[in-house]
Amino acid sequence: MEEKINLFYTNDLHSNFEQWSKVVGFLKDVKAQKSAAHESCWIVDIGDHIDRVHPIAEAFMGKANVQLMNHAGYDLATIGNNEGITLAHDDLFHLYDEADFQVVCANLHSLDNKEPDWLKPTVTIQSVKGVKIGIIGLTAPFNAFYELLDWHISPQYEALDKYVEQLQQSTDIIILLSHLGINEDQEIARRFGAIDVIIGGHTHHLLRTGEYINNTLITAAGKHCAFVGEVILTWDHILNKLVKKEAYTKEITHLAKDLHTEQTLNEMQEKADQLLAKRVVVINNPIEVRWFKQTEVMQQLTNTLKKWTKSDIAMLNSGLLLDHLPAGEVTLKDIHRICPHPINPCVVELKGDELLEVVRASFTKEFMELKLKGFGFRGEVLGRMIFSGMEVKTSFHDSGEEFVQEVTLHGSPIQVERTYTLATADTFTFGRLLPEIAKSEVKRYFLPEFLRDLLAETLRTNFAGD
């Protein structure tokens, strides 16, 4: 006798609610179908459901996302880095207090010696015919951020060594909910043959029908819930083993919306607008934003960053600000609208020659016009780099392309062997946008403040009306 066991999952929604009511409609339908067929079915999320780029997530500090998951009938979830490092400690500690689903993450630990009641390293679920399924959750180890918020992420292999062996003794099937990324998922599959399925996320990869490494099935459903993932496991009760594993992704962008969910989203948006209507400042004159030109607001924001971090130099890219501000009242909603990125201030140490290379690279056409996706950036293009504490003189080639002619600090040339502290957006500490910053051995992040918090201070200090 064979039994079908079904899991439907989402990953990396990032508070992009455009498809959410369609996701909910689809999940409700499939759960009803599986229930009518007397098949086991669970709904799972793999993290980064929350992203403070959206006013609803910002206003409710993620709790509205949890409410939406409750309404959709989720059974299990793990956390992503957007849940973990974009909320203050207490906000994360109480994020899932009202969750109707279980939260599983084996490598998240509170440094204040008190763990949230909702946090479980593993969970065991059971099919309608008695098959025991062990669930482990893991999240990406951004400890440079987590530890500033009094959390710690232990090594994923240490957690797997501990819990896989335990689950082997007590369950029939082992499933990993992994917010680690495709490369880590593949390596885990190589090392831990006892894990039957890895449902992944974080790197936004889409595996339409999954992939096998050894005996482990790996799957993931992209980002923003354009797809919902499905895992189908077939258990043979006579042979007493798992005989088939399948993974699929279903595109849901063309499906009908769940009207109750659409109404809930509209109500949440109205409430978020009310919560974010708090006045920050009144300005007498409009504030202009330009992505490829120096503006007063970007210069003053960069000056604020330098002063706030007590750094030698600061630099910020103009693409961080997305829109103008008209004269009059400026609210929290306005500031969130023009600076929605979950980006923190950061200070790195660079030698003078490295600093010069960063400056030169930032003035290339390719850099300024780069349509960056990810690393916290939620804008259109990076834009022109603005500096504070340092003078940058540029000129133009015959082709019209701008280049750096001279860089000075208080009128003196940059000393190539001297070490400077540079404040900037944490975006540049990741990837290969500006390799010298990413490779800096000294990085100091500032949490839980976002750059928009510094923007609010800049407006109050430099642009307030009478």
UniProtKB/TrEMBL annotation:
Gene Ontology terms, MF aspect: hydrolase activity
InterPro entries: 5'-Nucleotdase_C, 5'-Nucleotdase_C_sf, 5_nucleotidase/apyrase, Calcineurin-like_PHP, Metallo-depent_PP-like, Pesterase_YunD
Naturally occurring in which organism (per UniProt): Virgibacillus tibetensis
Name assigned to this protein: Bifunctional UDP-sugar hydrolase/5'-nucleotidase
Pfam families, alphabetized: 5_nucleotid_C (PF02872), Metallophos (PF00149)
Entry keywords, A to Z: Hydrolase, Nucleotide-binding, Signal
Signal sequence, renumbered to the chain: none
Ranges for domain Calcineurin-like phosphoesterase: 10-205
Residue ranges of domain 5'-Nucleotidase C-terminal in the record: 288-427
UniProt similarity note: Belongs to the 5'-nucleotidase family.
